[in-house]
Design brief:
By secondary structure, the protein is an alpha/beta fold. Helices cover 29% and strands 32% of the residues. The chain has a 6-stranded mixed beta sheet, with helices on both faces. The protein has a two-stranded antiparallel sheet with strand order 1-2. The chain has a two-stranded antiparallel sheet with strand order 5-6. The structure holds guanosine-5'-monophosphate.
């Protein structure tokens, strides 16, 4: 998605440890005009009418999923990162290794909001090693629901997550795939 790549080039900041900061437009301050284009593009890439729910993970995925959901006309469910006193009844849960904090945390979804009749589109801001998305896939499988695909705003193509997921036959669409980035020069190159 050209608009997104241009924005990443202009406003993205490459940090040590293979971290790309996009917090001026994607995950701290949010550019809603850009979010809208992202939502439309996900709809174009996942035209299936079978999708019944969008699943994401707090916090950065929520805004993206909500704007996208307006083009799918389905509810958004987000996995919580800690056990909440508000989650009564059964839950689906699994452990995920955090890319940015390098620790394991639990993600949780109430069993009320995912069922075997659901066809789920997973959406997240970044795909790096694939731990977050794999955790979400686990939750979908625990519910007996189907996975329609995975929509990612920025995939870091030099990390393993995208390849691993595609090898499992999962339909992954990333709006921008970063092939390389250099913390010293700030240079970012995209997959063509
Ligand atoms: P993964 O689980 O695929 O290794 O990493 C994906 C998760 O880690 C995303 O949910 C995202 O929040 C965070 N993440 C991974 N890489 C980056 C990055 O380069 N920049 C930012 N801002 N977040 C990242």
């Amino acid at each position: 998605m050209k608009l997104l790549e241009e924005r990443i080039r202009r406003d993205g900041r490459v940090k040590a440890g293979n971290v790309l900061k996009v917090d001026s437009f994607l995950n701290h301050q949010l550019d809603i005009a850009l979010y809208n284009e992202i939502g439309k593009e996900f709809r174009r890439l996942f035209p299936s009418d079978r999708i019944t729910k969008i699943l994401t993970i707090e916090a950065s995925g929520i805004g993206i999923a909500c704007i996208a959901a307006q083009y799918f006309q389905v509810p958004v469910v987000f996995a919580k990162k800690s056990r909440s006193i508000n989650l009564d009844g059964g839950v689906y849960t699994t452990g995920v290794r955090s890319f940015t904090h390098n620790r394991i945390y639990d993600i949780i979804v109430s069993a009320k909001f995912l069922s075997k009749d659901d066809h789920v589109l997973i959406i997240d801001d970044f795909l790096a090693n694939g731990c977050a998305v794999s955790g979400l896939i686990e939750l979908v499988k625990s519910a007996g629901a189907g996975i329609e695909g995975v929509g990612i705003v920025i995939e870091k193509g030099f990390q393993e997550g995208g390849r691993r997921l595609r090898e499992q036959g999962i339909h992954v669409e990333s709006l921008a795939v970063v092939d390389a980035m250099n913390a010293a020069t700030g240079e970012i190159t995209f997959r063509r």
